[in-house]
C-alpha cells in the first residue's frame, strides 16, 4: 500500500559501490548504522559536518587525535571540563599565551 514500501539489499559476502561523480542521500526520518568491526573513512578534500541539534559522542576505549596542522576551537556559551580519574598533562613545545577578560575564581 502507498507509504508502506520497503527496499532491502543483502550481500552474502562483500558489497562494493562506485560513484563516478556526486552522491546525495536525503533521509526524512532517522538513520542508524551498526558496524561489526572497523570503520575507515578517507576524505581527500575538505569535510564539513553541521549538527542542527544536540550531539553526543561516547568513546568506550582510547581516543587519539593527530592534527598535522593548526587547530582552532570556538565555543559559544561556556565550557565545563571534568576529569573523573587520572590526571591532566599538557606538554607545550613553543610559546603559550593566556588572556582572561573577566574574573578568575
From TrEMBL:
Residues 3-83 form the Gp5/Type VI secretion system Vgr C-terminal trimerisation domain. It comes from the Bacteria. Pfam families: Gp5_trimer_C. InterPro entries: Gp5_Vgr_C (IPR054030). This is Type VI secretion system tip protein VgrG. It comes from Serratia marcescens.
Amino acid at each position: 500500500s502507498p507509504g508502506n514500501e520497503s527496499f532491502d539489499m543483502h550481500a552474502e559476502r562483500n558489497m562494493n559501490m562506485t560513484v563516478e561523480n556526486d552522491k546525495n542521500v536525503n533521509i526524512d526520518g532517522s538513520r542508524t548504522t551498526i558496524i561489526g568491526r572497523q570503520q575507515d573513512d578517507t576524505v581527500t578534500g575538505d569535510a564539513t559536518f553541521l549538527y542542527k541539534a544536540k550531539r553526543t559522542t561516547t568513546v568506550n576505549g582510547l581516543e587519539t587525535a593527530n592534527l598535522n596542522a593548526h587547530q582552532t576551537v570556538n565555543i559559544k556559551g561556556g565550557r565545563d571540563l571534568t576529569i573523573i580519574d587520572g590526571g591532566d598533562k599538557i606538554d607545550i613545545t613553543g610559546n603559550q599565551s593566556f588572556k582572561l577578560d573577566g574574573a578568575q575564581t
